[in-house]
Amino acid sequence: MNNEKLILVDIGNTNFHIWENGYIYDLKQADKLEGRVFYISVNEKKEKEFLSLNPDAVNLKEYVKFDTDYKKLGIDRIMACKTVEIGTVIDAGSAVTVDFMKKGKHLGGIIFPGIFAYKKAFATISDKLNKDFRKPDDFPISTEEALWSGSIGSIICMIEKYGIKPVYLTGGDGKYLNQFIDGIYIEDLVFKGMKQTLIENGKWRMYNEK
Amino acid sequence: MNNEKLILVDIGNTNFHIWENGYIYDLKQADKLEGRVFYISVNEKKEKEFLSLNPDAVNLKEYVKFDTDYKKLGIDRIMACKTVEIGTVIDAGSAVTVDFMKKGKHLGGIIFPGIFAYKKAFATISDKLNKDFRKPDDFPISTEEALWSGSIGSIICMIEKYGIKPVYLTGGDGKYLNQFIDGIYIEDLVFKGMKQTLIENGKWRMYNEK
């Protein structure tokens, strides 16, 4: 048995998300990590920074098997969906991605602005739209309710339109969205897909997990 | 009969929209207008600039009657809805506003980012999201289709959710959205509301219209 520590890294557009011994944390900047590092990345610039500090890190993109007709599906979305047999997968980060799985096949997906991106877009249009969101009871009858409906409400509308249950949520704003969406929040959903990829390639048992 | 020319001005967050003798045009900057000017405004800074050049212009906000429970509804949205007895009113500008009317009463409304604001939000998140939108046939299976669904598709979803027909479209991107939404494009819908307000206050017949 190899006792070298296993580290999983998900390089996003804003943060480096790190999994280490069952603990998850974020780094704003690339850092040198001590252990056997497997990673995925959706941001080439951040990936280069990371590889300059961790030249032996292995990109899991080369190893993953995933059934989809979607052209150039982001590797983070692949990993988030990989362990889901059926359901809707929401990853709420810089963007909110919503992907649909049935019988282990990826049917397609949607990209919304992230919650922060919605707020910034509204505030940029007008100071009057620089408001907190509030869920309406019925028709939206205030700016706060109108903005909730035009962002979170519209994400929910599309999820309900395709109607594939259960709904899984992950990502930085996953817990926040779970207030409004009947679903299961799984903090490490992307890392579960990465682990599954390691298992499928016979690389998992080589390392210890707490 | 007063032969002074009537001019209507809708001061938005991006442009000055002008109605003059049945012609509509946009100004990027405030200008001195020759005639009897009535206006509405959602942008205080632009309104001040405009009033410094047109000190006799009359704000129609003081004259309009409109039935709604919505707090601080934008005067442009009031004017766009004012002549609609029943239906959904889409004003696609810097923001896309969607308002619901029944029996001449405003039931509520939604604020989405404008089409340009969506594109800018996506491009800001990642260069990979700096793509044209494309309407999917079924599930979105490319970035272009995923972005369409996460913006225009989600606007349509909310319109269909409330389901109040017919649908009227106006604003700079109204014609563009009409490609995807079964509705009636009315270029001068806001100005129709302003004219109706003038009529209700006995100010319309005083001026000539071509």
Automatic annotation (TrEMBL), chains A, B:
One of its GO terms (biological process) is coenzyme A biosynthetic process. It catalyses: (R)-pantothenate + ATP = (R)-4'-phosphopantothenate + ADP + H(+). A monovalent cation. Ammonium or potassium. Substrate binds at residues 70, 74-77, 143. K(+) binds at residue 91. It is found in: Cytoplasm. It comes from the Bacteria. Coiled coil: none annotated. Belongs to the type III pantothenate kinase family. Homodimer. This is Type III pantothenate kinase. It comes from Lebetimonas natsushimae. The gene is coaX.
